[in-house]
Amino acid sequence: MDHLVVEGGVRLDGTVEARGAKNAVLPVLAASLLTDRPLVVPNAPRLADVDTMAGILRALGSRAERREDGAVEVCSDTIQSEAPWELVRKMRASFGVLGPLLARTGRAEVSLPGGCVFGVRPVDVHLKGFRALGARVEIEGGNVVAQAPPGGLIGGEVYLGTSFGSSVGATMNVMLAATLARGVTTIQCAACEPEVTDLADCLVAMGAKIRGQGSPTIEIEGVDELGGATHAVIPDRIEAGTFLIAGAITGGRVRVANCRPLHLGSLLDCFWRAGVPVERGRDWVEVRPPEGGLRPTDVTTQAYPGFPTDLQAQWMALMTLARGVSLVTERIYPDRYMHLAELLRLGARIRRQGTTAVVEGTPRLSGANLTASDLRASAALVLAGLVADAKTEVHRVYHIDRGYERIEERLQSLGARIRRVSDGSQ
Ligand code: EPU
Known about the structure:
By secondary structure, the protein is of the alpha+beta class. Helix content is about 30%, strand content about 25%. It has helices at about 20-30, 50-60, 85-90, 100-105, 125-130, 170-180, 195-205, 235-250, 265-275, 310-320, 340-345, 375-385, 400, 405-410, and strands at about 1-5, 15, 40, 65, 70-75, 80-85, 105-110, 135-140, 145, 155-160, 160, 165, 185-190, 210, 215-220, 230, 255, 280, 285, 300, 325-330, 350-355, 355-360, 370, 390-395, 415-420. The protein has a four-stranded mixed β-sheet. Strands 2-17-19-18 form a four-stranded mixed β-sheet, covered by helices on one side. The radius of gyration is 21 Å and the shape is globular. The site of uridine-diphosphate-2(N-acetylglucosaminyl) butyric acid (EPU) has 24 residues, from helix 1, helix 5, helix 6 and helix 12.
Protein backbone atom coordinates (compact mmCIF):
# COMPACT_ATOMS: atom_id res chain seq x y z
CA MET A 1 0.00 0.00 0.00
CA ASP A 2 1.36 3.42 -0.94
CA HIS A 3 1.08 6.69 0.89
CA LEU A 4 1.56 10.27 -0.21
CA VAL A 5 3.88 12.68 1.54
CA VAL A 6 3.01 16.34 1.06
CA GLU A 7 5.09 19.26 2.22
CA GLY A 8 2.82 22.26 2.34
CA GLY A 9 3.43 25.90 1.63
CA VAL A 10 4.04 26.09 -2.13
CA ARG A 11 1.73 28.31 -4.20
CA LEU A 12 0.82 26.18 -7.20
CA ASP A 13 1.50 27.69 -10.60
CA GLY A 14 0.92 26.21 -14.04
CA THR A 15 -1.38 24.27 -16.30
CA VAL A 16 -2.76 20.78 -15.95
CA GLU A 17 -5.02 18.89 -18.35
CA ALA A 18 -8.23 17.20 -17.30
CA ARG A 19 -8.46 13.56 -18.34
CA GLY A 20 -11.49 11.64 -19.56
CA ALA A 21 -14.22 11.46 -16.92
CA LYS A 22 -14.24 8.41 -14.64
CA ASN A 23 -17.99 8.55 -14.16
CA ALA A 24 -18.53 8.78 -17.92
CA VAL A 25 -16.11 6.08 -19.02
CA LEU A 26 -17.41 3.38 -16.65
CA PRO A 27 -20.99 3.29 -18.05
CA VAL A 28 -19.66 3.74 -21.60
CA LEU A 29 -17.54 0.61 -21.15
CA ALA A 30 -20.60 -1.22 -19.79
CA ALA A 31 -22.47 -0.15 -22.96
CA SER A 32 -20.07 -2.33 -24.96
CA LEU A 33 -22.06 -5.33 -23.69
CA LEU A 34 -24.98 -4.23 -25.90
CA THR A 35 -23.20 -5.09 -29.14
CA ASP A 36 -20.97 -7.73 -30.67
CA ARG A 37 -19.00 -5.00 -32.45
CA PRO A 38 -15.94 -3.21 -30.97
CA LEU A 39 -16.35 -0.10 -28.85
CA VAL A 40 -13.30 2.15 -28.59
CA VAL A 41 -12.73 4.90 -26.01
CA PRO A 42 -9.66 6.87 -27.17
CA ASN A 43 -9.32 8.92 -23.99
CA ALA A 44 -10.12 6.33 -21.31
CA PRO A 45 -8.23 7.53 -18.21
CA ARG A 46 -5.69 5.23 -16.56
CA LEU A 47 -7.54 4.60 -13.32
CA ALA A 48 -7.95 1.64 -11.01
CA ASP A 49 -11.73 1.81 -11.56
CA VAL A 50 -11.28 1.51 -15.34
CA ASP A 51 -9.11 -1.58 -14.79
CA THR A 52 -11.80 -3.00 -12.50
CA MET A 53 -14.50 -2.45 -15.13
CA ALA A 54 -12.28 -4.03 -17.80
CA GLY A 55 -11.80 -7.02 -15.44
CA ILE A 56 -15.56 -7.39 -15.01
CA LEU A 57 -16.12 -7.23 -18.76
CA ARG A 58 -13.48 -9.90 -19.28
CA ALA A 59 -15.12 -12.08 -16.62
CA LEU A 60 -18.34 -11.74 -18.63
CA GLY A 61 -16.53 -12.97 -21.76
CA SER A 62 -15.63 -9.66 -23.47
CA ARG A 63 -12.20 -8.88 -24.80
CA ALA A 64 -11.12 -5.63 -23.16
CA GLU A 65 -7.66 -4.19 -23.63
CA ARG A 66 -5.66 -0.98 -23.45
CA ARG A 67 -4.16 -0.47 -26.92
CA GLU A 68 -0.70 0.93 -27.57
CA ASP A 69 -2.20 4.30 -28.55
CA GLY A 70 -3.78 4.50 -25.06
CA ALA A 71 -7.36 3.78 -26.19
CA VAL A 72 -9.40 1.12 -24.45
CA GLU A 73 -11.10 -1.28 -26.86
CA VAL A 74 -13.81 -3.72 -25.85
CA CYS A 75 -15.39 -6.38 -27.99
CA SER A 76 -18.24 -8.36 -26.48
CA ASP A 77 -19.02 -10.86 -29.24
CA THR A 78 -19.81 -13.69 -26.85
CA ILE A 79 -20.87 -12.95 -23.30
CA GLN A 80 -22.40 -14.68 -20.33
CA SER A 81 -24.91 -13.11 -17.97
CA GLU A 82 -23.42 -13.53 -14.48
CA ALA A 83 -21.17 -10.92 -12.87
CA PRO A 84 -19.30 -12.40 -9.89
CA TRP A 85 -19.27 -10.91 -6.40
CA GLU A 86 -15.45 -10.82 -6.07
CA LEU A 87 -15.34 -8.25 -8.87
CA VAL A 88 -18.59 -6.37 -8.31
CA ARG A 89 -17.85 -5.73 -4.64
CA LYS A 90 -14.74 -3.74 -5.61
CA MET A 91 -16.68 -1.02 -7.32
CA ARG A 92 -20.28 0.06 -7.12
CA ALA A 93 -20.36 1.28 -10.72
CA SER A 94 -20.05 -2.34 -11.86
CA PHE A 95 -23.78 -2.70 -11.10
CA GLY A 96 -24.15 -0.77 -14.38
CA VAL A 97 -23.54 -3.97 -16.34
CA LEU A 98 -26.97 -5.26 -15.27
CA GLY A 99 -29.00 -3.17 -17.74
CA PRO A 100 -26.94 -4.05 -20.81
CA LEU A 101 -26.69 -7.76 -19.86
CA LEU A 102 -30.44 -8.00 -19.38
CA ALA A 103 -31.13 -6.25 -22.69
CA ARG A 104 -28.67 -8.32 -24.71
CA THR A 105 -29.04 -11.80 -23.17
CA GLY A 106 -32.54 -11.61 -21.63
CA ARG A 107 -31.12 -12.52 -18.21
CA ALA A 108 -28.68 -10.98 -15.76
CA GLU A 109 -27.33 -12.06 -12.42
CA VAL A 110 -25.24 -9.41 -10.73
CA SER A 111 -24.12 -9.30 -7.14
CA LEU A 112 -25.97 -6.70 -5.08
CA PRO A 113 -23.44 -3.95 -4.30
CA GLY A 114 -22.84 -3.39 -0.60
CA GLY A 115 -22.98 -0.07 1.22
CA CYS A 116 -19.99 2.20 1.31
CA VAL A 117 -18.36 4.58 3.75
CA PHE A 118 -20.83 7.31 3.01
CA GLY A 119 -24.05 5.40 3.47
CA VAL A 120 -26.32 2.55 2.49
CA ARG A 121 -26.57 3.38 -1.23
CA PRO A 122 -29.56 1.26 -2.27
CA VAL A 123 -30.37 0.17 -5.85
CA ASP A 124 -34.16 0.00 -5.47
CA VAL A 125 -34.73 2.61 -8.16
CA HIS A 126 -32.61 0.68 -10.69
CA LEU A 127 -34.74 -2.40 -9.99
CA LYS A 128 -37.97 -0.41 -10.34
CA GLY A 129 -36.73 0.68 -13.77
CA PHE A 130 -36.04 -2.87 -14.95
CA ARG A 131 -39.47 -3.99 -13.72
CA ALA A 132 -41.05 -1.14 -15.72
CA LEU A 133 -39.47 -2.73 -18.81
CA GLY A 134 -41.25 -5.99 -18.05
CA ALA A 135 -38.38 -7.80 -16.29
CA ARG A 136 -38.91 -10.12 -13.33
CA VAL A 137 -36.40 -9.07 -10.68
CA GLU A 138 -35.58 -11.05 -7.50
CA ILE A 139 -32.82 -11.00 -4.90
CA GLU A 140 -31.35 -14.48 -4.52
CA GLY A 141 -28.27 -15.35 -2.51
CA GLY A 142 -27.06 -11.75 -2.45
CA ASN A 143 -27.51 -11.40 -6.20
CA VAL A 144 -29.99 -9.46 -8.26
CA VAL A 145 -31.47 -11.92 -10.72
CA ALA A 146 -33.34 -10.25 -13.56
CA GLN A 147 -35.20 -12.04 -16.32
CA ALA A 148 -36.70 -10.35 -19.38
CA PRO A 149 -40.11 -11.52 -20.61
CA PRO A 150 -40.15 -13.96 -23.57
CA GLY A 151 -39.29 -11.91 -26.65
CA GLY A 152 -37.23 -9.41 -24.65
CA LEU A 153 -37.74 -6.18 -22.69
CA ILE A 154 -40.71 -3.98 -23.49
CA GLY A 155 -40.58 -0.17 -23.44
CA GLY A 156 -42.37 1.46 -20.52
CA GLU A 157 -42.70 4.58 -18.44
CA VAL A 158 -40.69 4.99 -15.24
CA TYR A 159 -40.03 7.70 -12.66
CA LEU A 160 -36.46 7.51 -11.33
CA GLY A 161 -36.46 10.13 -8.56
CA THR A 162 -35.29 9.31 -5.01
CA SER A 163 -35.60 11.29 -1.78
CA PHE A 164 -32.15 12.68 -2.64
CA GLY A 165 -32.88 13.72 -6.23
CA SER A 166 -32.69 11.68 -9.42
CA SER A 167 -30.40 8.69 -9.50
CA VAL A 168 -27.50 9.01 -11.93
CA GLY A 169 -26.74 5.28 -11.92
CA ALA A 170 -30.38 4.21 -12.32
CA THR A 171 -30.93 6.65 -15.21
CA MET A 172 -27.92 5.18 -16.97
CA ASN A 173 -28.76 1.55 -16.22
CA VAL A 174 -32.37 1.87 -17.40
CA MET A 175 -31.35 3.88 -20.48
CA LEU A 176 -28.83 1.15 -21.38
CA ALA A 177 -31.48 -1.57 -21.00
CA ALA A 178 -34.13 0.38 -22.93
CA THR A 179 -31.99 0.81 -26.06
CA LEU A 180 -32.80 -2.76 -27.15
CA ALA A 181 -36.36 -2.98 -25.72
CA ARG A 182 -39.39 -3.21 -28.00
CA GLY A 183 -41.16 0.16 -28.19
CA VAL A 184 -40.61 3.46 -26.44
CA THR A 185 -39.36 3.98 -22.88
CA THR A 186 -39.89 7.28 -21.09
CA ILE A 187 -37.72 8.06 -18.07
CA GLN A 188 -39.15 10.78 -15.85
CA CYS A 189 -37.08 12.58 -13.24
CA ALA A 190 -34.01 11.44 -15.16
CA ALA A 191 -30.63 12.61 -13.87
CA CYS A 192 -29.31 15.55 -15.93
CA GLU A 193 -25.62 15.05 -15.14
CA PRO A 194 -23.25 15.56 -18.12
CA GLU A 195 -22.12 11.93 -17.71
CA VAL A 196 -25.69 10.78 -18.48
CA THR A 197 -25.73 12.94 -21.63
CA ASP A 198 -22.32 11.58 -22.60
CA LEU A 199 -23.53 8.00 -22.28
CA ALA A 200 -26.59 8.83 -24.39
CA ASP A 201 -24.33 10.38 -27.04
CA CYS A 202 -22.23 7.21 -27.10
CA LEU A 203 -25.34 5.04 -27.41
CA VAL A 204 -26.64 7.22 -30.26
CA ALA A 205 -23.28 6.77 -32.01
CA MET A 206 -23.87 3.00 -31.62
CA GLY A 207 -27.26 3.34 -33.34
CA ALA A 208 -29.63 3.92 -30.39
CA LYS A 209 -32.57 6.31 -30.65
CA ILE A 210 -32.56 8.63 -27.65
CA ARG A 211 -34.07 12.08 -27.13
CA GLY A 212 -34.07 14.47 -24.18
CA GLN A 213 -30.73 13.51 -22.59
CA GLY A 214 -29.59 16.32 -20.30
CA SER A 215 -33.23 17.08 -19.39
CA PRO A 216 -35.44 15.39 -16.75
CA THR A 217 -37.39 13.48 -19.41
CA ILE A 218 -35.53 11.03 -21.62
CA GLU A 219 -37.22 9.03 -24.37
CA ILE A 220 -35.64 5.91 -25.78
CA GLU A 221 -37.04 4.14 -28.81
CA GLY A 222 -35.76 0.59 -28.81
CA VAL A 223 -33.86 -0.74 -31.84
CA ASP A 224 -33.16 -4.36 -32.90
CA GLU A 225 -29.41 -4.11 -32.57
CA LEU A 226 -26.57 -1.73 -31.86
CA GLY A 227 -23.22 -1.46 -33.61
CA GLY A 228 -19.72 -0.48 -32.56
CA ALA A 229 -18.47 3.09 -32.13
CA THR A 230 -15.47 5.19 -31.24
CA HIS A 231 -16.46 7.57 -28.48
CA ALA A 232 -14.23 10.01 -26.60
CA VAL A 233 -15.75 10.67 -23.19
CA ILE A 234 -16.19 14.17 -21.72
CA PRO A 235 -13.40 15.68 -19.60
CA ASP A 236 -13.64 14.91 -15.88
CA ARG A 237 -15.37 17.89 -14.23
CA ILE A 238 -14.63 16.60 -10.72
CA GLU A 239 -10.94 16.16 -11.44
CA ALA A 240 -10.87 19.63 -13.05
CA GLY A 241 -12.63 21.08 -10.00
CA THR A 242 -10.19 19.38 -7.65
CA PHE A 243 -7.17 20.94 -9.41
CA LEU A 244 -8.83 24.35 -9.40
CA ILE A 245 -9.47 24.09 -5.66
CA ALA A 246 -5.81 23.02 -5.27
CA GLY A 247 -4.83 26.29 -6.95
CA ALA A 248 -7.20 28.32 -4.79
CA ILE A 249 -6.20 26.71 -1.47
CA THR A 250 -2.53 27.48 -2.07
CA GLY A 251 -3.28 31.03 -3.21
CA GLY A 252 -1.77 30.10 -6.56
CA ARG A 253 -2.57 30.36 -10.22
CA VAL A 254 -3.72 27.11 -11.81
CA ARG A 255 -5.17 26.62 -15.25
CA VAL A 256 -7.06 23.44 -16.07
CA ALA A 257 -6.95 22.84 -19.80
CA ASN A 258 -9.18 20.50 -21.81
CA CYS A 259 -12.18 20.96 -19.54
CA ARG A 260 -15.75 22.14 -20.13
CA PRO A 261 -16.30 25.35 -18.15
CA LEU A 262 -20.07 24.92 -18.59
CA HIS A 263 -19.93 21.71 -16.55
CA LEU A 264 -18.28 23.64 -13.71
CA GLY A 265 -20.84 26.44 -13.38
CA SER A 266 -21.74 25.89 -9.71
CA LEU A 267 -18.08 25.66 -8.65
CA LEU A 268 -17.13 28.81 -10.58
CA ASP A 269 -20.00 30.63 -8.87
CA CYS A 270 -18.62 29.51 -5.49
CA PHE A 271 -15.15 30.77 -6.41
CA TRP A 272 -16.66 34.10 -7.31
CA ARG A 273 -18.47 34.28 -3.96
CA ALA A 274 -15.29 33.23 -2.13
CA GLY A 275 -13.31 36.03 -3.77
CA VAL A 276 -11.19 33.73 -5.95
CA PRO A 277 -10.71 35.40 -9.35
CA VAL A 278 -11.54 33.06 -12.24
CA GLU A 279 -10.77 33.42 -15.94
CA ARG A 280 -12.13 31.06 -18.51
CA GLY A 281 -11.98 30.29 -22.20
CA ARG A 282 -13.77 27.82 -24.44
CA ASP A 283 -12.06 24.77 -22.93
CA TRP A 284 -10.07 26.04 -19.96
CA VAL A 285 -10.54 27.62 -16.56
CA GLU A 286 -7.93 29.43 -14.47
CA VAL A 287 -8.01 30.46 -10.83
CA ARG A 288 -5.85 33.32 -9.57
CA PRO A 289 -4.75 34.33 -6.07
CA PRO A 290 -7.62 35.84 -4.06
CA GLU A 291 -7.07 39.44 -3.04
CA GLY A 292 -7.48 39.85 0.70
CA GLY A 293 -7.98 36.18 1.55
CA LEU A 294 -10.81 33.72 1.10
CA ARG A 295 -14.36 34.79 1.92
CA PRO A 296 -16.41 32.19 3.78
CA THR A 297 -18.83 30.63 1.29
CA ASP A 298 -21.74 28.27 2.00
CA VAL A 299 -22.45 25.39 -0.34
CA THR A 300 -25.27 22.85 -0.53
CA THR A 301 -24.75 19.80 -2.70
CA GLN A 302 -27.43 19.10 -5.27
CA ALA A 303 -28.00 17.18 -8.45
CA TYR A 304 -26.50 18.79 -11.56
CA PRO A 305 -26.32 21.67 -12.31
CA GLY A 306 -26.14 22.24 -8.53
CA PHE A 307 -22.92 21.93 -6.55
CA PRO A 308 -21.63 18.32 -6.95
CA THR A 309 -21.39 16.06 -3.90
CA ASP A 310 -18.12 14.83 -5.42
CA LEU A 311 -16.55 18.25 -4.72
CA GLN A 312 -18.01 18.73 -1.24
CA ALA A 313 -14.98 17.40 0.66
CA GLN A 314 -12.56 19.47 -1.43
CA TRP A 315 -14.63 22.64 -0.90
CA MET A 316 -14.71 21.97 2.82
CA ALA A 317 -10.91 21.73 2.84
CA LEU A 318 -10.77 25.15 1.14
CA MET A 319 -13.20 26.71 3.60
CA THR A 320 -11.08 25.62 6.59
CA LEU A 321 -8.88 28.59 5.65
CA ALA A 322 -11.58 31.18 4.95
CA ARG A 323 -11.92 34.35 7.04
CA GLY A 324 -15.12 33.35 8.84
CA VAL A 325 -17.75 30.62 9.13
CA SER A 326 -19.08 28.63 6.15
CA LEU A 327 -21.86 26.06 6.09
CA VAL A 328 -21.32 22.98 3.94
CA THR A 329 -24.55 21.00 3.55
CA GLU A 330 -24.71 17.54 2.00
CA ARG A 331 -28.04 16.72 0.35
CA ILE A 332 -27.10 13.71 -1.81
CA TYR A 333 -25.33 11.47 0.71
CA PRO A 334 -26.20 12.77 4.21
CA ASP A 335 -23.33 10.77 5.77
CA ARG A 336 -20.56 11.73 3.39
CA TYR A 337 -18.40 13.33 6.05
CA MET A 338 -15.52 10.90 6.54
CA HIS A 339 -12.98 13.62 5.73
CA LEU A 340 -14.19 15.80 8.60
CA ALA A 341 -12.40 13.94 11.40
CA GLU A 342 -9.18 13.85 9.39
CA LEU A 343 -9.33 17.58 8.67
CA LEU A 344 -9.65 18.14 12.44
CA ARG A 345 -6.31 16.38 12.82
CA LEU A 346 -4.76 19.20 10.79
CA GLY A 347 -6.18 21.76 13.20
CA ALA A 348 -9.27 22.65 11.17
CA ARG A 349 -12.29 23.87 13.14
CA ILE A 350 -15.36 22.02 11.93
CA ARG A 351 -18.41 20.67 13.70
CA ARG A 352 -21.23 18.67 12.26
CA GLN A 353 -24.86 19.53 12.83
CA GLY A 354 -26.97 16.88 11.10
CA THR A 355 -26.27 17.07 7.40
CA THR A 356 -24.42 20.38 7.70
CA ALA A 357 -20.80 20.96 8.59
CA VAL A 358 -20.06 24.28 10.25
CA VAL A 359 -16.58 25.26 9.14
CA GLU A 360 -14.88 28.01 11.08
CA GLY A 361 -11.91 29.28 9.11
CA THR A 362 -8.49 29.24 10.72
CA PRO A 363 -5.33 31.06 9.53
CA ARG A 364 -3.23 27.89 9.33
CA LEU A 365 -3.34 24.09 9.26
CA SER A 366 -0.59 21.95 10.67
CA GLY A 367 0.63 18.77 8.93
CA ALA A 368 -0.26 15.34 10.35
CA ASN A 369 -0.65 11.66 9.46
CA LEU A 370 -4.03 11.11 7.83
CA THR A 371 -6.01 8.12 6.62
CA ALA A 372 -8.00 8.33 3.41
CA SER A 373 -11.45 6.75 3.57
CA ASP A 374 -12.81 7.21 0.08
CA LEU A 375 -11.89 8.77 -3.21
CA ARG A 376 -13.01 12.38 -2.82
CA ALA A 377 -12.22 12.52 0.90
CA SER A 378 -8.65 11.51 0.03
CA ALA A 379 -8.43 14.29 -2.52
CA ALA A 380 -9.58 16.78 0.13
CA LEU A 381 -6.83 15.61 2.49
CA VAL A 382 -4.18 16.04 -0.17
CA LEU A 383 -5.47 19.56 -0.87
CA ALA A 384 -5.29 20.44 2.83
CA GLY A 385 -1.78 18.95 2.98
CA LEU A 386 -0.68 21.31 0.18
CA VAL A 387 -1.17 24.26 2.48
CA ALA A 388 -0.53 22.78 5.94
CA ASP A 389 2.69 23.66 7.76
CA ALA A 390 5.36 20.97 7.67
CA LYS A 391 4.58 17.47 6.45
CA THR A 392 1.30 15.64 5.89
CA GLU A 393 1.13 11.93 5.10
CA VAL A 394 -2.00 10.58 3.46
CA HIS A 395 -2.34 6.83 3.85
CA ARG A 396 -4.45 4.35 1.85
CA VAL A 397 -3.97 6.26 -1.38
CA TYR A 398 -5.44 3.39 -3.38
CA HIS A 399 -8.69 5.29 -2.89
CA ILE A 400 -7.28 8.25 -4.79
CA ASP A 401 -5.92 6.07 -7.60
CA ARG A 402 -9.48 4.94 -8.26
CA GLY A 403 -10.36 8.35 -9.67
CA TYR A 404 -7.29 10.53 -10.24
CA GLU A 405 -4.63 9.58 -12.76
CA ARG A 406 -1.15 9.92 -11.15
CA ILE A 407 -2.29 12.83 -9.00
CA GLU A 408 1.13 13.35 -7.40
CA GLU A 409 2.91 13.76 -10.75
CA ARG A 410 0.35 16.25 -11.96
CA LEU A 411 0.51 18.26 -8.74
CA GLN A 412 4.32 18.17 -8.95
CA SER A 413 4.07 19.68 -12.43
CA LEU A 414 2.31 22.64 -10.76
CA GLY A 415 5.16 22.97 -8.27
CA ALA A 416 3.75 20.98 -5.34
CA ARG A 417 6.14 19.12 -3.06
CA ILE A 418 4.40 15.76 -3.02
CA ARG A 419 5.73 12.26 -3.45
CA ARG A 420 4.44 8.71 -3.38
CA VAL A 421 6.09 6.30 -0.99
CA SER A 422 5.59 2.59 -1.33
CA ASP A 423 5.16 0.94 2.08
CA GLY A 424 6.16 -2.40 0.58
CA SER A 425 3.37 -4.07 2.51
CA GLN A 426 -0.28 -4.94 1.91
N1 EPU B 1 -30.45 6.21 -4.46
C1 EPU B 1 -31.52 5.49 -3.98
N2 EPU B 1 -31.91 4.38 -4.67
C2 EPU B 1 -31.29 3.98 -5.81
C3 EPU B 1 -30.20 4.72 -6.28
C4 EPU B 1 -29.81 5.84 -5.57
O1 EPU B 1 -32.11 5.83 -2.96
O2 EPU B 1 -31.70 2.95 -6.38
C5 EPU B 1 -30.02 7.42 -3.73
C6 EPU B 1 -28.56 7.32 -3.24
O3 EPU B 1 -28.45 6.63 -2.02
C7 EPU B 1 -28.16 8.78 -3.17
C8 EPU B 1 -28.94 9.40 -4.34
O4 EPU B 1 -29.99 8.50 -4.64
O5 EPU B 1 -28.63 9.33 -1.98
C9 EPU B 1 -28.11 9.63 -5.60
O6 EPU B 1 -27.43 8.43 -5.95
P1 EPU B 1 -27.04 8.10 -7.46
O7 EPU B 1 -27.72 6.86 -7.87
O8 EPU B 1 -27.27 9.32 -8.29
O9 EPU B 1 -25.49 7.83 -7.33
P2 EPU B 1 -24.62 6.78 -8.14
O10 EPU B 1 -25.13 6.69 -9.54
O11 EPU B 1 -24.49 5.54 -7.36
C10 EPU B 1 -22.91 8.49 -9.13
C11 EPU B 1 -21.43 8.67 -9.09
C12 EPU B 1 -21.00 9.16 -7.72
C13 EPU B 1 -21.73 10.48 -7.43
C14 EPU B 1 -23.25 10.27 -7.54
C15 EPU B 1 -24.04 11.55 -7.37
C16 EPU B 1 -20.59 7.01 -10.62
C17 EPU B 1 -19.82 5.78 -10.85
N3 EPU B 1 -20.76 7.41 -9.38
O12 EPU B 1 -23.22 7.50 -8.16
O13 EPU B 1 -19.60 9.40 -7.81
O14 EPU B 1 -21.40 10.91 -6.14
O15 EPU B 1 -23.56 9.73 -8.85
O16 EPU B 1 -23.66 12.49 -8.31
O17 EPU B 1 -21.00 7.66 -11.58
C18 EPU B 1 -17.38 9.51 -7.04
O18 EPU B 1 -17.01 9.64 -8.23
O19 EPU B 1 -16.60 9.71 -6.08
C19 EPU B 1 -18.77 9.13 -6.76
C20 EPU B 1 -19.14 8.64 -5.60
